[in-house]
Amino acid sequence: MGTLLEIEQVGKRYGGIMAIDGVSFTIGERELVCVIGPNGAGKSSLLNVMSGTVRPDQGDVRFRGRSLRSQPAHAFANHGIVRKFQGANVFPWMTVTDSLRMAGLGVALHSGRAPPAVEDVLATIKLGHQAHRLGSMCSHGQRQWLEVGMTLMCRPRILLLDEPTAGMTAVATVEMAELALRLAAEMSVVVIEHDMSFVRRLGCRTLVMHQGRLIADGPFDAVSHDERVRDAYLGRA
Ligand SMILES: Nc1ncnc2c1ncn2[C@@H]1O[C@H](COP(=O)(O)OP(=O)(O)O)[C@@H](O)[C@H]1O
Ligand SMILES: [Mg+2]
User: Which CATH number is 3-65+72-234's, of 3.40.50.300, 3.40.920.10, 3.90.1150.10, 1.20.210.10?
Assistant: First the structure.
């Protein structure tokens, strides 16, 4: 498995808070990785740096060996580093189909990677029957699926998902886990998640953040038995 993304000694400070504090790891081709940790641990900040949304104060982000440190977020997307934000934000006045089409435009224009067929993405996110529904009329769960669909329209090489199952039903959470597993056959997938049933189902490499630091990095089984992880996050029950 070749290395796709390298995060090297990244730091990001907000006033007196180190949101990310000297974090290093790599993401391989078609690797599936979960990121867990308590609220405020720095998980979203880490995704912000990995997707170019926020520039780190220290350290570097390299894609296939090339530094992206001084590049804007759209350059990250053009390389195939595509992210879903925490919370569902879709275009309220556009239909599901048009939102998908729109999402496929930018990267296709600037990177030459043609978007997948809208029908295929609709089938993947199981919104075929809602294709003409306005974003504002979609349920919270449908909006979460639509946002994932919009990321897929950018033909990601590295898909970054920030709490994709927040507010979803238990059934939809299982479906999202199954989708993440399927997608990881084609691309690298990094998922921030607080639902431990989801993380257990993925059973993949798991990064644990706590107070801006990466305190564990390994298979979920090993990480879930780690003393520091139990103290910081999972508890001992
Ligand atoms: N834009 C920002 N301005 C100020 N503080 C921020 C900002 N983004 C994140 N933080 C702070 O950085 C820390 C990590 O936040 P975040 O990365 O959102 O954590 P998580 O996603 O793990 O809940 C928190 O203390 C948060 O308040
Ligand atoms: Mg967060």
Answer: 3.40.50.300
